[in-house]
Specification:
single chain, 74 residues, alpha/beta, Rossmann fold, three-stranded parallel beta sheet, two-stranded antiparallel ribbon, 5 strands
């Protein structure tokens, strides 16, 4: 089986969290072009990333550490 024939469920599921839309769009665009990665959501606030993480169950969260409603580290 070739890489292209793999089931998309085997992809690494990624959630992007950043208060800057241009950053979210850019990262999503780059990651979606790579085989083996799938962006499952984009959040613009800490509250939104928590809600989306519960809904989408990502494998990885790429998160800004400085957001208006709190630290991405918290």
């Amino acid at each position: 089986m070739t890489d292209h024939a793999r089931d998309r469920t085997a992809d690494v599921r990624i959630l992007i969290a950043d208060d800057h839309e241009v950053v979210r769009i850019g990262l999503a665009s780059l990651l979606d072009r790579q085989p083996g990665f799938r962006v499952v959501g984009e959040a613009r606030s800490g509250d939104e990333v928590v809600r989306l993480a519960r809904q989408t169950r990502p494998d990885v969260v790429i998160m800004d550490i400085r957001m208006p409603d709190g630290s991405g580290i918290d």
